[in-house]
Structures are given as structure tokens and as C-alpha cells.
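tool=predict chain=A
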Amino acid sequence: MEPLERFTAGFPEEPGFLNYASFGPISDAVTAESDGWMNSVSRARFGAVDALLEQDRRAREAVANLLAFRADQVVLQPNTSMGLMHAMFGLTGPVLLSPAEFPSLPVAAVRAEQALGSTGPIWLSTDHGMVTPGQIRDQLTSTTAAVAVSLVDSRTGYLADIEGIRQVIGDRLLIVDAIQGAGVVDAPFALADVVAGGGQKWLRAGWGTGYLALSDRAIERLTPVVSGFTGLVEEGQIFDEVPGPLRSPMAFRVSNHDPIAAARLAAAVEDIASVGVTEIRDAVAIGVSRVIDIADEFALPVVSPRNESERAGIVVLEPPTEQLSALTASLFNHGVSTTVRGGTVRVSVHAATSEDTFDMLKAAFTSYASTVRVY
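tool=predict ok
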């Protein structure tokens, strides 16, 4: 069996699922990993706890390999949002970002400003939420300390040009919310200073599987604010007086991570590594093109990027306002899972999206078209 074929065989979801940008059904590899550890720990098998605690290191090594960071530059998090909170609260100086980003970024920036006053957002004006290097270049100020962006915008499906952004911002910190692209986008993550993500979407690792990767420059410039006891001393040390935080990513966590969640994350990322992100990306691109072609057949407006270099796994449809309810009802009646928000329908495909699923999508569009008479 070819690696991609073996990988896609591990997608257990039923036909009709087109909502990976919201939640990725847990893969067979992750389920087996979780079940194995739960069984081991529930029996208190000798040595199980020591082996389980090694899963933190295993997960950090897997994530580091995915992002082209070092393992000692990665710290596990409960979710993406917490990782972004650590980064924003650690900044000194303003951060340039779009107010249209997924709320995790702008909320973290505003909360850091309200709590500390040492940073704050400079709101970036964009073209319908799509952040480009040119817009950033034109709106940088002499005081801008960092730029924050989503690798893939959750509303528009736009894939950010990380290399272009790095070129225009110089040595300012580059903060990337990677949750909508890591694992399906072959991005130059190493150009970023902060990469925050989670495993519950495209990695298919379930919730509680966040991570934060920090460059050496980020460690130098960010101040650990929400730093718990595990970020104060090296593992195994004890103290009678509270010391300062370590100068390492471990300072950017509150406590020990859930080791079974770490095992799930490790299994998911190792599964991706066994195939390669490039092959997965190519398979996703084929699926995205299929969705766009089907939408075009029924004259459904596609408002997400069509150019393969500007997209990942998301297709956004914007039917006329008066037809949105009919489209939503048709998708529901045909068992097609998508996200409907803000007048748009977000469809997201993965490498294993099946012919049955595309057929169900087409059937839903056929019913919709007969209802609103778009033919």
C-alpha cells in the first residue's frame, strides 16, 4: 500500500463530512494511541506512568519536525488560543494585525493591552480580510514590534504569504496562527518567530493538543507572564523561594501537559510525516478544485481564492442572501456537514474526501438549484 493510500485509509468518518476547518474527526492512528494508553494507565501497569510522561518529548519532536523548528523550541499547550495568549502577553511594543482574524488573535492582543499596557494592537486594513505583504509593508510603523497573521484565514480560506511577509517586516517578530494549515500546507514555518496551533482540526488529533513553537529571537524578546511552576526550574528540581522563569519555551506554560493528549498529537503528526505534507497538500488541492468545479456548475459564487498558491483546504461560497436558507437546508437534508456563518457556507476537504462525499455535495446543490431555479 502506498503511503498516501495508507494515510487516507485512516479516515473513519462517514461520507458527507466537509467541515475539517471546524473539527477533524479523530484518525484511526490517534484512536488506537489513545485507547492503548488509557488501557495501560487504567490497569496501573508497571512502568506505564514513566512511559506516558515521555509522550511530551515525543510530541515536541514530532511538531518540531513538522514546523522545521528544534524540539527544544516547542512547548505543548492546551489549545492554540492559549499559545497565542502567551505570545501576546509577552510582547513589548505594538503588534500589527487584522481585526478580521479569527478571534483568538485580536482578543489576545486586546487583553494583553488591557492587562499590561506594554503592548497593543495596530489594526491592519485589508482587502476583505486577506492579509498580504504589501498591505503590511504600507502600514508598518517605526514602533511596530511584531506582526501577527493566520496561516490560513478561517473566513476567506486565504493562504498567507509567510515568506513575503517576513521579507517586508525585517527583524520584527512574526507570529503565526497555524491551526488552519499545519499538516496540509507546506509552509516555511521556520521564517516565523512564533507558531501556535492545535491538533483538533486538520491534524485530526482531538482537543487538548495545542503547541507553541518559539524561535531563539522570540525567547529573547518575549517575557513569560503566565508562567507556572513547570517553567521556573529544570525538571526534578525543587525550591523554597520562587525563582524567575527559565529562558526557554518551557516558561510559556502553566503546568504539565496532559500526556495522553501529547500521545494523540504525536501519533497524528507522525502519521503525517510518514506520508509527507507535500503529498497531502496535493491531494487536498485536488479536492478543493472538485468543490469549486461543482459550485461553478450550479452558479454558486465562490468567494475564496481559486489560485492554488493562495488557498489550502477551504472553499467559501456566498449565495444570494435570500437563497442562503435554501442552500443550508439542502445541505442538511443530504447529510453534508459544513459551516454556515456570516452569510457564507464554508466547505473544507481533506486528503481522503471520498467520491461519495462529492456526490452528496452535488446532490445537495441539485436540490438547492431546483428550489431557487438557478438553472
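The beta strands are 74-77, 95-97, 121-123, 146-150, 173-177, 194-198, 210-214, 314-317, 339-341, 344-348. The first helix runs from residue 3 to 8.
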